[in-house]
Design goal:
InterPro entries (chains A, B): ATPase_NBD, Carb_Metab_Reg_Kinase/Isom, ROK, ROK_cs
Number of helices of chain A: 8
Shape of chain A: globular
Cofactor (chains A, B): Mg(2+)
Number of domains of chain A: 2
Strand order of the largest sheet of chain A: 3-2-1-4-7
Catalytic activity (chains A, B): D-fructose + ATP = D-fructose 6-phosphate + ADP + H(+)
Largest interface: A-B, 44 and 44 residues
Oligomer: homodimer
Structural class of chain A: alpha/beta
Order of helices and strands of chain A: EEEHEEEHEHEEEHHHEHEH
CATH superfamily of the largest domain in chain A: ATPase, nucleotide binding domain
Family (chains A, B): Belongs to the ROK (NagC/XylR) family.
Pfam families (chains A, B): ROK
Radius of gyration of chain A: 19 Å
CATH topology of the largest domain in chain A: Nucleotidyltransferase, domain 5
Helix content of chain A: 25-40%
């Protein structure tokens, strides 16, 4: 298929903001726009207005969840049950296609990110990658054998149960479903709930980072045992804190206690290779190309 | 390929005992033998002596671990680092093939079990299955998209960290690497360590089963979030305790707290379909057939 001259679209559909981008077939971003996530009607109107300026050939969508990502299932293309007002049972793909009828690839924001790191993050193509985002929530995407992991639906590893840090036993956590699951204990809002200070204003020397590092280490240990990945990538605003992954690697080594042979931890528990939170955009664009190629060979 | 008339072999290589079987190409077991696992030389001599009585065409091996299962890696076919005396770095496949040079499929005991349930347990072929064995140790095998899950090596989900049950906080656990990981808290030896009574002699009404059920529920929750499976199967001597899975389902429902849509739990957290601990044997035989077919089309 000739893709030269085609334009690819990316929608990063976050619970807080949408980022839409247009790129050429070599993944050079031509134009990008960001706007606040409000109600689905207004938000989709802005999204379609952006893409209607271009002759876009395919769009990759990395969405906040939970969402229906299995083609053929009734909920495919929908935001499913979300606390975000107005978005439960919203037909995302259907409403986009009603305005712009091009091939789309619809997946989670973290699947898009892990795919971006897989395609452009200089890893070998047979590698198993796990991508965590620690921000407003905690999401996890996994790629193995070139495919996203997930049977009935996408992983929900943000809600694993952790052993509490001794200095954190009285903190109830902020997850509205589970209280003190991973998301309840290590998302951005958990920092403000513990300290009364917004996460970005907490000093690097605050002991809360030792607690977060312990939970990151447990999260890394859990996916190590489940998937035996080649790399575990921590993105999102919380993970970017200087020194945090270094602390987590130390805790992780203690958890392993020389049981599993592991790569050098500095190259195993890592930040994204793609800078400026770009993993999801590049992942979306690569998935748009995938959708375009799939539609063409039909 | 004509498989009619061919004989298939199964080796269930357990840390306590070996079970070897011969079956016809329709998976009817013709002969079976069991013996104690001693040192590798004597144990392999008994194994090869059994198979040399037959004109076996291929052998499936489900072994205790950790083992090297990735063809092309240096440790493929080996038992790797095990506390079991004499078995560390033992070349299992090499020593078998030196005596009986037929195609083999070498995987973990729990991968063999999950494959048996996948092939013969009346599930649909696109389903994602997780198989736990709770016995002397805790092992986990996962199949998704028809393939075993595991990147650099096989899963080691037996060593996940659990939140302790309030009535179990002072129990240190029995895992020699991690103390109170899943294996340290829910394997057979943990029962004797807590109560002073061998697991099989503990009464059904003992409160220790509430503790074990809580850990089984956490294990099921962890793999639910990681793999979004269609079914989670609990085999092994501990899991067989009457009423235990029923208690675990109740705890599991509380953990989910209506977050994820799930199938009826009675059909989700289940015992093996294949009776009398036969999942591994049938899995080995099916994997032997797979190895034979693969070798033939080369």
């Amino acid at each position: 298929m000739v893709v030269e001259g085609k334009l690819l679209g990316s929608i990063e559909a976050g619970g807080t903001k949408f980022v839409c981008a247009i790129a050429d077939a070599n993944f050079n971003v031509i134009e990008q726009t960001k706007f606040k996530t409000t109600n689905p009607v207004d938000t989709m109107a802005k999204t379609t207005a952006f893409f209607q300026q271009f002759n876009v050939s395919a769009i990759g969508i990395g969405s906040f969840g939970p969402i229906g990502i299995k083609e053929g299932q009734d909920d495919y293309g929908f935001i499913t049950k979300t606390p975000k007002v107005g978005w439960s049972d919203f037909d995302f793909v259907g409403s986009l296609k009603a305005a712009i009828n091009v091939p789309v690839f619809f997946t989670t924001d973290v699947n898009a990110s892990v795919y971006g790191e897989y395609e452009f993050g200089t890893v070998k193509k047979d590698q198993t990658l796990v991508y965590f985002t620690l921000g407003t929530g905690v999401g996890v995407g996994v790629i193995q054998g070139g495919s996203f992991v997930g049977g009935r639906s996408h992983p929900e590893i943000g809600h694993i149960i952790l052993r509490k840090h001794p200095d954190d036993v009285n903190f109830a956590g902020v997850c509205r479903f589970h209280g003190d699951c991973l998301e309840g204990l290590a998302s951005g809002p958990s920092l403000a709930a513990r300290t009364g200070i917004a996460g970005e204003n907490i000093s690097d020397s605050d002991p809360v980072w030792d607690i977060i590092a312990y939970y990151i280490a447990q999260a890394a240990w859990s996916v190590t045992l489940s998937f035996r990945p080649d790399k575990i990538i921590f993105g999102g605003s919380v993970s970017g804190r200087p020194g945090l992954l270094s602390k987590a690697r130390q805790q992780f080594a203690q958890m392993n206690n020389d049981y599993l042979p592991l790569p050098d931890l500095d190259n195993y528990i890592v930040h994204p290779k793609i800078e400026n939170n770009g993993s999801a955009t590049y992942g979306d664009l690569a998935l748009a190309l995938f959708a375009l190629q799939k539609a063409t060979v039909k």
